[in-house]
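Page 47, continued from p. 46.
Same chain as before, 290 aa.
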Amino acid sequence: MKNYVIVTESTTDLPQDLVNELGITIIPMIFGFENESYLNYPDNREMDIHKFYERIKGGEKSTTALINSKTFEEYFEPILKSGDDILYIGFSSGLSGTYSSSLIAAEELKQKYPDSKIICIDTLAASMGEGLLVYHAAKLKQQGQSIEEVSQWITDNRLKLCQWFTVDDLNHLKRGGRISAMTATIGSALNVKPILHVDNEGHLIPVHNVRGRKKSINALLEHMEELCINPEEQTVFISHADSPEDMEHLANLVKEKLNVKEVILSFIGPVIGSHTGQGAIALFFIGKER
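Result:
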């Protein structure tokens, strides 16, 4: 069986030690403040993640940019030159044009390397939800499954990937156009916390609201209790936007109530964090449906 390399981008929010363990290639995405521009690597080498969230909490606005086709070619071509195939597992097309850029690069390179395979898959997922699909793909590859078998597994299971979020700062949802200015103002005054998930089209959408931070975290658990299948066999991911105590609280609830096999924790990186704001918490698992 021909060797292949799993490629994804830093929106997976996978920690560097896990990236090393899985043996995957990460393409960094761009974020920045006004005239400053940074690349988001898993080890946060260009900006400390705590510093990023301090600036966000202080009122600065961070912007992000998609990965263009030229950058994909720069990462893909050395892999093809070495004789390996590529399985690219990409950021939701419902949230970014990055996946489309990967397709352009793949078509260009297939003409140059006709005997090589480049398979691009849209996860319709974000943050560690995308990361959880990459995690499973890498584990299957380590077990000896082929590029076709792994890509088929992702295609068959991506709409069973459950991605539930809550945010602490409604102003970021307002800036992103997900709620109105009036809703943000009233919601903040009433301590309303929205519960969101990523739908089957890969969009982050509000589902319902609760009053208070504790109830919002409990709501994530309740959705997992409703949707999760075989939790005792699952590795569950939880990510946070510089809110470690709340993340640990949710992790303890998940372990206690559902007896999951493993919980892996990480930061929501600056690309996703630019849109969620400081204080977001997210829970990812495999369920009956999204």
